[in-house]
Amino acid sequence: MGIITTKLDEKLSVTGQISLDDLSEIAAAGYKSVICNRPDYEGGETQPTSTQLEQAARSLGLQFVYLPVEIGAVSIEKSEAFRKLLIELQKPVLAFCKSGSRPKALYEMSRQKQEKPKGETETVTAACSWTGEAPATTPLPPPAEEKLLPVIPACNWGNAFDIVVVGGGAAGIGITASLLHRQPSLRIAIIEPSDKHYYQPAWTLVGGGAFEIAETVRNMADVIPPKAEWIQVAASGFDPDQNLVHLVDDRWIGYQQLIVCPGIRLAWEKIEGIQQTLGKNGVTSNYQFELAPYTWSLTQNLKKGKALFTQPPMPIKCAGAPQKAMYLSCDHWLHQGVLDSIEVEFNNASAVLFGVADFVPSLMKYVQRYHAKLVFNSNLVKVDGDHRIATFEIKDSEGKISRVDKSFDMLHVTPPQVAPDFLSNSPLADAAGFCEVNPKTLQHVRYSNIFSLGDACSSPNAKTAAAARKQIVVVADNLLAAREGKELPDVYDGYGACPLTVEKGKVILAEFGFGGKLLPTFPLDPTVPRRFAWFLKAKVFPWLYWNGMLKGREWLTRSTGVS
């Protein structure tokens, strides 16, 4: 077989992530059943969904079961379900996750259950990195009556934390660092499952050949503030009435105050066929770490043909990024003398090129320079990578929607984006699924001890790292004031920034607040593309991110206080 398997006993083997193509080999090797232990869309990575795998497996006569297990400690409930599957499914069985470690852990736990003396207590072990005095513990919420096995936490922190931060992205690390800079004695926990931290604003530059992808990633352990406690498990829900965050391993973490900033999820599943072709067949996206270099490769190799760039309905991270990818590719083709042989088209689900009208005239000059065709109200809904066909739903002036197929040689896709499910399905969410806050104070509208910032909050600002940088100060000041029962001192003006890279070497530094009000940092016309702004984007901002924002240094972060 092309995939590497580890045989645990006569009835079970485990392996890492499988593809749709692997299933025929799995069936040919004699396996009768497949168990998927990797959650769909885990970490925003490209992988076939359980539904896609199940359909392919059943067509080959394989039984298929989806039993997702989040990264972190494994619950007894999951191990019991896994044990029952090994009894019920046809053998031999192949189980998989990203690396194969989760089904192996489930197997070991099920064996321990079978071998342990009658009456012995079940436990789950997990790494615990607590370095100080052991915190006081509180009882967990009782398990549902139908559960026969108790779920015992690997590390029971209880209500030990002054503040719990959900999310270890730019907003989560930044706000934690700022709070600890103000009050080092605060006991803060960061709930974040990923072991990597990314500087996402540079991925557009990577796709344009102007930045190294390796410089956009660091180990999460290296950016977590030293005085914070890192809980490396995903959150699964909230009980704000009891001041608890639920984790996927069935632990509950208590808090006095909560900060919600888990970011926004790339909803690739909303585009039919896209996940089977990302990273090949000319289909790419600067919105994923591993795909941005492929964008640059496609740009370099395309000498003639058709290049499509897409933008989905709002909200998305950095609303200018979809067109920035187009500008940098076009600039390369222009300098290589091949632009006249390439048909460039920008399909935008919105009705305008950019949401702040002041910047549109300058952007249109570049659209015209690159001979790009703009198609508004055009939303990508399907991709056939093998035949290089992209299908769009296009809305006309009367609101009628029709489907149009377009061929391509290169397709840069900006995925639809949604709030994480555990937030959108919680009491904290607004109708759109985002954490519902007062946009001026960033305090939750129903729970005064909860604040939110970054891409997951409902404030109608541009979802950018620059916005989070300003929001950090507002949340830090207001949360600490609320902690002492004082009036909230800060007002957020909606600041966001989108450095629009219109050519290699020049950027339009778009800075604006609520209502599209221009909020330039420098006394220069912000609508003019400048080499100075490129220097900021390519050199200064990355350095400030790693050495300033994530370290609690609040340089040029004060809000105007005018909304």
From TrEMBL:
Signal peptide: none annotated. The keyword Oxidoreductase applies. This is Sulfide:quinone oxidoreductase. It comes from Nitrosomonas communis. One of its GO terms (biological process) is sulfide oxidation, using sulfide:quinone oxidoreductase. Its cofactor is FAD. InterPro entries: BLH_phosphatase-like, FAD/NAD-bd_sf, Prot-tyrosine_phosphatase-like, Sulphide_quinone_reductase. The keyword Transit peptide applies. Keywords: FAD, Flavoprotein, Oxidoreductase, Quinone, Transit peptide. PANTHER family: SULFIDE:QUINONE OXIDOREDUCTASE (PTHR10632), SULFIDE:QUINONE OXIDOREDUCTASE, MITOCHONDRIAL (PTHR10632:SF2). Residues 8-111 form the Beta-lactamase hydrolase-like protein phosphatase-like domain. It holds the Pfam family BLH_phosphatase. The lineage of its organism: Bacteria, Pseudomonadati, Pseudomonadota, Betaproteobacteria, Nitrosomonadales. One of its GO terms (molecular function) is FAD binding. Transmembrane segments: none annotated. SUPFAM superfamilies: FAD/NAD(P)-binding domain (SSF51905).
